[in-house]
Amino acid sequence: MATQSLVGTKNRSGQVVTDAWKMMHEAERSPCFFTGSEVIKEAIRRANCDVMIAYPITPQSEAAALIGELFAEGFIGDYFRGESEFAVMSQCAGAAFGGARVFTTTAGPGTMRAMENFPMWAGARLPIQMIVTCRGINSPLSIQPDTLEISYLLNTGMLVWHAETAQDFYDWILKGYMVSEEPDVHLPLALCCDGFFVTHTKDVVNLTPADMCLPPYDPYRSPVPCMDMECPPVRMMRDPFVMKSNYISYATHASWQQEVWAAVERSRKHTIRWLDGLIEVDRPDAEILIVSSGTAVSQGREAQALLEEDGIEVGIVKVKTLRPWPEEEIRQATKNAKHIIVPEFNVTGWLAKEIRATIPDADRVYAGPHVCGGMTMPPEVIAADIKKHLGIKAESLAGRGS
Amino acid sequence: MSTMYEVLPGPEHFLPPAAASMGVRLPDPGQAHIHGKIVNEDEAMEVAARQFLSAKVPTIFPGPLVLWAWNEKAAKKATAIRHLYETIKESVTPSQQAMLIPMPDYRPKYPKINPEIEINPNHPNLTIWHNKIDACMFVGVHCHQANLSLKIIRGGTYCYTMAMCAQAGHEDAMVSFRDATADKIMRLADWVKKLKGSVAPPKD
């Protein structure tokens, strides 16, 4: 691999290009007390990133602004604000077509506005990394945490990961490039977190040394040629299959789509290696399991502790990646469970639907509790729902003021 | 996903699935795969050589990454591919016809390509059908385009497909090598030479 030969040399800002595995697993770490937004900045400082483009939208604006400071310090090759989220994602595509390692951030309505670009990124096999700091998307306007937007990303062909903590965020930004830039994967990554809960709260995060950075992106390992107006995927855009009405055109387009999803499947092997599995399981033998992603996992852990005080044992399954979907892992982890509780920060319960479609005896899945529009999810609510599900009388938290 | 899916010559289906979506995994360095099963590289070398020697029209499809001397490695690989082709040609009987047909680019070409002189990833079956190719090897084709072609060939033809990939390999081929170098291609030519005369030629 060409970029491996650069290990030990210095990049444009004087950082030592380091073998990514050694940097993430062996280098000494130092604890810092940072907000999630500051953690994004620190990860990008070490990501050897060529281009960062974003448009301000809460709650990702702070991270985007902080990365502007990195540009001023010489850690990013180019940095600018696009005209809109749609423009930003198109500009990201242009930079990635040109062979750059690209980073962007977005949130809520911004994600929705830019949506047309995401299947285009995946179809063009562009390994762009996009941070999604989830917030409400519907009218009436809300800037508060809500994970509904993730469900719209699930069928774009992008890799979709859901971080629980700022530490996940730091590690997964750097590891994410290593997975998504593999030539057999080479897909964009939507690295999601629950806005405000992760981006605007401080936490202790262990950082790798600031004088180390990832090896640079090597565009010559791409599964498609670099930008060329005579070759696909660019040629496809000016001479698309859709303009030709014959079996061969349809078959080529169909095969192209299949290849994108094949690449999502191939990411499984690399993701398992880098993230130490697609899921994390605590107490797999428990008859009651809380299966969730993002900060709902943290709330689930608190509920687990509350229920333990009442003598009720509960296990936790943390789903780290939504694409690739950990189908086999979830099937295995839930095989002994009698009750599967899926708390979510959205109104539709998309994670519960995915789990129901994955496991046998899907009536074991209890879709909820749900909160949305910025509501918090007190662990007492999860504990009360579990008790209710088990036929145990529980006090309603909503009635405490009466 | 547990897998029972085997990557075999077609015609398989109106729209065959991508092998990766059926649970077929790519080999690790030092390995190869045969029909989706991970094997050591030498085992795959022998199978590939036997396929070339037993086919009526054994064909190599070199792609853009090796058709132009854009770096020293590409030039060396091109020389090795020419050597492999010459070795196959010398090792088969007069009733067999070895071919070397380039995939010069990936542009959709309409109304259609000339299948006698090139292959195109958007309709590779035309070249296979026209020349009655029953065993082929892709080399120097960008991975996305190679997978596209290999799947379309598996869907609509009976051709036995092989891939000499410079990256991680191809599940959609029936035999796939990874991390291809000029030396690896020369090793395959050595296998063809070694097995010359020991493989039954195709029946008419």
Written overview of the protein:
The complex is a heterodimer of chains A (402) and B (204). Chain A has helices at 20-25, 36-45, 61-72, 85-97, 108-113, 117-123, 148-153, 166-180, 234-238, 247-275, 295-309, 327-333, 350-356, 379-390, and strands at residues 16-17, 30-35, 51-54, 78-81, 102-106, 129-134, 159-162, 189-194, 202-207, 212-213, 279-282, 288-292, 314-319, 321-323, 339-344, 365-370. Chain A has 402 residues and is an alpha/beta fold. Chain A folds into two domains: 2-221, Rossmann fold, CATH 3.40.50; 280-399, 3-Layer(aba) Sandwich (Rossmann fold), CATH 3.40.50. In chain A, strands 4-3-5-6-8-7-14 form a seven-stranded mixed beta sheet, with helices on both faces. Chain A has a five-stranded mixed beta sheet with strand order 11-13-12-15-16, sandwiched between helices. Chain A has a two-stranded parallel ribbon with strand order 1-10. In chain A, helix 2 (36-45) packs parallel to helix 3 (61-72), helix 8 (166-180) crosses helix 10 and helix 11 crosses helix 14 (379-390). By secondary structure, chain B is α/β, with parallel strands linked by helices. Chain B has a single domain, classed as 3-Layer(aba) Sandwich (Rossmann fold). Chain B has helices at residues 41-54, 64-67, 72-91, 124-131, 143-156, 182-195; strands at 31-34, 37-40, 58-62, 99-100, 135-139, 160-164, 175-177. In chain B, strands 2-1-7-6-5-3-4 form a seven-stranded mixed beta sheet, with helices on both faces. Chain A binds chain B through residues 125, 182-184, 186, 221-225, 230-232, 235-236, 239, 241, 244, 248-249, 251-252, 254-256, 258-259, 261-263, 265-266, 269, 327-328, and chain B through 1-2, 15, 17-21, 25-26, 64, 105-108, 110, 121-123, 142-145, 147-148, 151-152, 155, 167-169, 171-172.
What would a concise description of this structure say?
Chain A has 402 residues and is of the alpha/beta class. Chain A has 14 helices and 16 strands. Chain A has helices spanning 20-25, 36-45, 61-72, 85-97, 108-113, 117-123, 148-153, 166-180, 234-238, 247-275, 295-309, 327-333, 350-356, 379-390, and strands at residues 16-17, 30-35, 51-54, 78-81, 102-106, 129-134, 159-162, 189-194, 202-207, 212-213, 279-282, 288-292, 314-319, 321-323, 339-344, 365-370.
